[in-house]
Design brief:
By secondary structure, this protein is an alpha+beta fold. It folds into 2 domains: 115 residues, Trigger factor ribosome-binding domain (Alpha-Beta Plaits); 183 residues, no CATH class. The protein has 11 helices and 8 strands. The protein has a 4-stranded antiparallel beta sheet. Strands 5-8 form a two-stranded parallel ribbon. 13% of the residues are buried.
């Protein structure tokens, strides 16, 4: 077997794999012998069907299947061993690939196109300036939040409907029962204390929204500064043939810029994670899961066991564990960026913030 790589552009290449009979003969014969051992045909005892008949019946299909396995395995090994960093997956080069005749050929050439990852150069320091919009918590926002909670915890008025024909809701009264429903386990004596707690909650909520917008702005800034170029035509072809982006072939051109920008951020993000050794361990994921279900105060042995059982169950769900892993990684990335780049703090109203967030694609 011989594998060679030829550059076809700034970020594309073609790999040629040459197979000779010695590369696949043993595997094909092993599979055919297994077929022979299991074969059952009229006129022959089980396992005694002549190899010539087995080869005539199954040989071509087995040859094709085993060659595909060999090609796939060795192409992957070649890329790994030679540290060829690709985008998407290798695609068959239909222009250079000749028709194969398994009846007459015993040597085969296969060609695969590659999209190559560009080198990513990114710097995060106080030279990178990013606006950070802090949302003001004012009396109006607290009052609106309080009224929303009163309606949410209100009761329907019997026999009365609103303008849409739905049961009319009587807002919850401002009393200790209502305060306890909103903040269980927290002693709140009056409306003033309740509003203080609402303001604290809004500050946390607004801070999370500010962080999300900050990350979008920072990602845009770092992608623009990196100047990353992609093998666009290869990527469009890969999207069309792989279906991994769940974009219809006819819509790829329309959505490609959005996809390409997201891919560029993934490359920048991966570079930052590598350069700054941002890590999330299985123990980190487990602790995060347990924190979701742990109530404040001391934890007895029975509670610890229950929390560990919950964590074990969720950790076995790969999709959910991956979601929590990504969440922790995003948080650590955000914390790194906030502590490293130059934040240009700007205080805005919630309405103005929404406009800014809407304008940021």
């Amino acid at each position: 077997m011989n594998i060679t790589q030829e550059s076809t552009g700034d970020f594309t290449a073609t790999v040629k794999i040459e197979l000779v009979k010695e590369d696949y003969e043993d595997q094909v014969n092993t599979v055919l012998k297994d077929y022979q051992r299991k074969a059952s045909m009229p006129g022959f005892r089980p396992g005694k069907v002549p190899m010539g008949m087995v080869r005539k019946m199954y040989g071509k299909a087995v040859l094709a299947e085993e060659i595909n396995k060999i090609i796939s395995e060795n192409l992957n090994n070649y890329l790994t061993e030679n540290e060829v960093k690709t985008l998407g997956h290798p695609l068959p080069n239909e222009d250079r690939q000749e028709m194969i005749d398994f009846d007459t050929q015993d040597t085969f050439d296969f060609f695969f196109d590659l999209g190559l990852q560009p080198e990513v150069i990114t710097e995060i320091s106080d030279k990178v300036k990013v606006d950070y919009y802090k949302i003001k918590v004012n009396e109006d926002s607290v009052n609106k939040y309080m009224e929303d909670l009163r309606m949410k915890n209100g009761k329907p008025v019997e026999g009365k409907e609103d303008e849409e024909g739905k049961p009319k809701i009587e807002p919850a009264e401002l009393n200790e029962e209502f305060y306890a429903a909103v903040f269980p386990g927290v002693e709140i004596k009056d409306e003033a204390e309740f509003k203080e707690k609402l303001a604290e909650q809004l500050e946390i909520s607004f801070a999370n929204e500010s962080d999300r917008l900050f990350m979008r702005h920072t990602a845009d800034k770092l992608v623009d500064d990196s100047g990353i170029q992609l093998p666009d035509e290869f990527m469009k072809r890969w999207l069309a043939e792989s279906g991994e982006a769940q974009i219809k072939a006819e819509d790829i051109d329309t959505h490609y810029d959005e996809y390409a920008r997201a891919l560029k951020w993934q490359l920048v993000e991966s570079k930052i994670v590598s350069d700054h050794e941002i890590q999330v361990s299985p123990d980190d994921v487990r602790e995060q899961i347990m924190s979701y279900f742990q109530t404040p105060g001391e934890v007895d042995e029975e509670t610890k066991k229950r929390l560990n059982d919950i964590a074990d169950s969720i950790m076995q769900n790969q999709e959910e564990a991956k979601r929590i892993y990504d969440q922790l990684l995003d948080t650590r990335m955000r914390d790194l960026l906030k502590s490293t780049v130059k934040l240009q703090n700007k205080e805005v109203s919630y309405d103005d913030f929404i406009k800014l967030a809407t304008e940021t694609k």
